[in-house]
Amino acid sequence: MPKTHWEYTLYVPHDPRAVGICRRTLRDILTTHHLTDLLEPAELLASELVTNALRHTDGPAAMKIRQSGPAFRLGAWDTDPTPPTITTATPTNTSTSGRGLRLVNAYADDWGWFAVNGANGKYVWCELGTKPD
């Protein structure tokens, strides 16, 4: 029987190529754990969270994914302790920012954040329901 409790963390440098590396790693892990129904939403959400982590800081970041029973959680850690906020202005077709947390809020079953070790950064997470293949 497949193990339903697992966790992976991928630490990445402050490099825009890290977002694609996180997506490919996530795809491999979800495929290995027979969670292919989560591929598209999880890749979208991971892209948004890791992009935000890299866009709003100068330091490294990390993508963390875990499953505990039916709950699948993914998130991104960064070095900025500033709380994430959803912009109040609606992004236009030509806007280059302001969609990330709106997408997370729309696609995830739940999301939130917490400070990490005081002023040492934050972790923004979201959850998706699972239906194993």
Automatic annotation (TrEMBL):
Domain of life: Bacteria
An MF annotation (GO) of this entry: protein serine/threonine kinase activity
InterPro entries the UniProt entry points to: Anti-sigma-factor_SerPK, HATPase_C_sf, HATPase_dom
Residues covered by the Histidine kinase/HSP90-like ATPase domain: 13-111
Keyword Transferase: yes
Keywords in alphabetical order: Kinase, Serine/threonine-protein kinase, Transferase
Pfam families reported for this sequence: HATPase_c_2 (PF13581)
Name of this protein: ATPase
Organism name: Streptomyces capitiformicae
